[in-house]
Design goal:
This is Peptidase family M28. This protein is an alpha/beta fold and about 550 residues long. It is built from 15 helices and 21 strands. Strand 19, helix 11 and strand 20 form a beta-alpha-beta unit.
C-alpha cells in the first residue's frame, strides 16, 4: 500500500491538476466520416500489401495532415515494415494413422494449417503425435509440459488457453496461472513459439470455443488466405514446419482412435506435474506456399512539444483488417468497421482535439500500425525499430475497437493491475460519474491480443481500456447482449460494417478519458512506471536509465 500511495503521490505532483485540463473537443463527425470511409468495399478490407492498403495509407496521410500533425518519421509520414506473405495452396487432407482407424482432417472444416517458413513446399510424413497438455514451459511457475521430452521431428497437440482458465478467482485459491484471467502462456502465439523452441515439426492447437473466447469461424477467417509475417534473414526456418488448429470433435476422434480419453487427459493437463502423452499415431500431410515479399507501412504523425520535444506521449491503433474472407450472403469483404476503422478514426479525432487544445510541453505521437490481425506485426516492428525512442516514450493509449452502442456507467481496464497509468485514469472517470469495472472476459487474454502489448514487452506503459458493460440505457444485460451479438455475428466477418445508426456517446466518453490522460502526461513531467510486480518493470527501468 505504501508503494502504491507513493506512486500516486509522485504522479500527482508531476502532472497538471485535473481542473486545469479543459474538456476536449472530440468530433463525432470525424469519428463517423473516417470510420465510414475506411469501411467502404473500395478498401477491400484493408489487408496489408494490397491495393486496399495503399488507399488506406493515402487517406490517413491526408487526414493526419488536415488534423494538424507533422510527418513523424524524419520528415516522412510512413515507416516501412518489411513483410513476407505466405498463402497455403493445394492443401491435402492431413491424416493420422497408427491408431484403431485412420483419422482424416479436411482443410477448413476440420483443420486449418499454415507455416511461418518462407519455403515453396511443406510436407509432414509420419510425424509422431504427442499430447503436451497446454504446451507451457514456465520455469518461474515450476511448470513444464515438455519436461523429459524430445519433440524434434514430432507434432505436438496442444490445448488452448492455460490450466487455470476455469478457476473463478485469482489469488491464493487460483493455480499458478492466476485464475481465469489468461496469461501470455495461454495465447496461441506463445504456444507456437514454445513448440518451435522445443524443435517440434508441427504444432496443432485444439480449438474449443469457451477457452478460446471465439468460435471456429474466427479461426477459419483468420487462418485461411494470405498469412503475414515480418521478413527474416533465415526465412523463419527456426519455426515449426506446420502450425494450425483442429476442431474439438476431431480432436476427440483422434484421441479415441489412439485409445486415449480426451476428457481425462485434458483434466490431467490442468494439474502440476502433468507429463506429455505420446498418442502412438503419426500425422502426414502437405501443402504448397505462394510467397510474396513486400513492404507494408505504419503511418506516423506528431505534434511537436514546445519544451521537451524529444519526450513523447503515444497514441496507437491498427489500420489493417482481414481483406477478403469467407463469403456470407455473397459478401466476401471483411470491412472491419468496428475492428478497427473506429480506432483509426479515433487517432484522427484525437489529433484534432490536441490541435484545438493548444501546444503541449512534450510531443504527442500518433501511430497507425499495420498487420495487427496477423500477430501485432506492425507494432512489433515499430517497437523494435522505434521512430520515437522507447526510453523517451512516456506512455500512451492503444485504441482497438470503440464502443458504438452508447454511454456506460463503467470502464474496463484490460489487464488491470499493471501500471501507474491506472492511478491517473481513476480520478478522470470520477468526473464522468463512472467506475472501473472488473474485466468482463479476462479468460480471453485481451491484454495480449492488441498492439499495446508490443510496447509493453519493451517497457512502455500503454493503456488498453474501453467502455464496460453497464449501459446507461439498458444496463449490464443490454451491454452483454450487444457484446455477444457482435462477437457471434460480426467479429472478423463480412458483417462488421459501418452502421449510420450507431450511438457514439460511449466512444466520446472513452476518448475524453484518453485525451485527458495523455494531456496530463504531455503537459507534465511525470514518467509513469509499471507496478513493482509487473513483468515489464525491469525493462522499463533499464530503458529509462539508458535514455538519461
Amino acid at each position: 500500500m505504501r508503494l502504491l500511495f507513493s506512486s500516486v503521490l509522485a504522479l500527482a505532483v508531476a502532472t497538471p491538476a485535473l481542473a486545469q485540463i479543459a474538456a476536449p473537443q472530440i468530433s463525432v463527425e470525424t469519428l463517423k466520416s473516417v470510420t465510414q470511409e475506411l469501411s467502404l468495399d473500395a478498401y477491400e478490407g484493408r489487408a496489408p500489401t494490397t491495393a486496399g492498403e495503399q488507399k488506406t495509407i493515402d487517406y490517413l496521410v491526408k487526414r493526419f495532415a488536415a488534423a494538424g500533425l507533422k510527418p513523424g518519421n524524419k520528415g516522412q509520414w510512413t515507416q516501412d515494415v518489411p513483410m513476407v506473405e505466405i498463402t497455403a495452396t493445394n492443401v491435402s487432407p492431413f491424416t493420422a494413422t497408427g491408431g484403431k482407424a485412420p483419422v482424416t482432417f479436411n482443410h477448413r472444416t476440420d483443420m486449418v494449417v499454415n507455416t511461418y517458413r518462407a519455403v515453396p513446399k511443406i510436407a509432414l510424413k509420419d510425424s509422431e503425435l504427442v499430447f503436451v497438455g497446454y504446451g507451457i514451459n514456465a520455469p518461474e511457475k515450476g511448470w513444464n509440459d515438455y519436461a523429459g521430452l524430445d519433440v524434434k521431428g514430432k507434432t505436438v497437440v496442444i490445448l488452448v488457453n492455460d490450466p487455470d482458465w476455469q478457476v473463478k478467482e485469482a489469488g491464493a485459491t487460483a493455480g499458478p496461472f492466476e485464475g481465469r484471467a489468461m496469461t501470455y502462456y495461454g495465447r496461441w502465439t506463445y504456444k507456437f513459439e514454445e513448440a518451435a523452441r522445443q524443435g517440434a515439426a508441427g504444432a496443432i492447437i485444439v480449438h474449443d470455443t469457451e477457452p478460446a473466447a471465439y468460435g471456429w469461424s474466427v479461426v477459419q477467417s483468420s487462418w485461411t488466405g494470405a498469412q503475414y509475417g515480418l521478413a527474416a534473414p533465415n526465412d523463419h526456418m527456426d519455426q515449426s514446419q506446420v502450425v494450425g488448429w483442429i476442431q474439438l470433435p476431431k480432436a476427440k476422434e483422434l484421441f479415441a482412435s489412439a485409445g486415449k480419453d480426451f476428457a481425462q487427459l485434458s483434466a490431467a493437463a490442468k494439474r502440476k506435474g502433468f507429463r506429455a502423452v505420446p498418442l502412438g499415431m503419426r500425422l502426414s500431410g502437405s501443402f504448397s506456399n505462394e510467397i510474396k515479399r513486400s513492404m507494408s507501412k505504419n503511418v506516423v504523425g506528431v505534434l511537436p512539444g514546445t519544451q521537451a520535444p524529444d519526450e513523447v506521449v503515444l497514441y496507437s491503433a491498427h489500420w489493417d483488417h482481414l481483406g477478403r474472407c469467407d463469403a456470407v450472403e455473397g459478401d466476401d469483404i471483411c470491412n472491419g468497421a468496428v475492428d478497427n476503422a473506429t480506432g483509426t478514426a479515433a487517432l484522427v479525432a484525437m489529433a484534432e482535439a490536441y490541435r484545438a487544445g493548444g501546444p503541449t510541453r512534450r510531443s504527442v505521437g500518433f501511430v497507425a500500425v499495420t498487420a495487427e490481425e496477423s500477430g501485432l506485426l506492425g507494432s512489433q516492428y515499430y517497437a523494435a525499430n522505434p521512430v520515437f525512442p522507447l526510453g523517451k516514450t512516456v506512455g500512451g493509449v492503444n485504441m482497438d475497437g470503440l464502443n458504438v452502442v452508447g454511454a456506460t456507467r463503467d470502464f474496463e481496464i484490460i489487464g488491470a493491475g499493471k501500471s501507474e497509468l491506472e492511478d491517473m485514469v481513476k480520478p478522470l472517470l470520477a468526473t464522468q460519474g463512472r467506475r472501473v469495472a472488473p474485466e468482463a472476459t479476462p479468460e480471453s487474454g485481451s491484454y495480449y491480443r492488441s498492439d499495446h502489448f508490443s510496447f509493453a514487452k519493451l517497457g512502455v506503459p500503454m493503456l488498453s481500456a474501453g467502455s464496460g458493460e453497464d449501459l446507461v440505457n439498458g444496463g449490464v444485460a443490454a451491454g452483454r447482449a450487444a457484446a455477444k451479438d457482435y462477437l457471434a455475428k460480426r467479429y472478423h466477418g463480412p458483417k462488421d460494417e459501418y452502421d449510420p445508426k450507431w450511438n457514439w456517446d460511449g466512444a466520446v466518453q472513452d476518448l475524453t478519458i484518453y485525451y485527458q490522460l495523455g494531456r496530463q502526461l504531455a503537459d507534465g513531467d511525470a514518467w509513469p512506471n509499471w507496478y513493482p510486480t509487473a513483468e515489464f518493470k525491469a525493462i522499463r527501468d533499464k530503458s529509462r536509465l539508458e535514455a538519461k
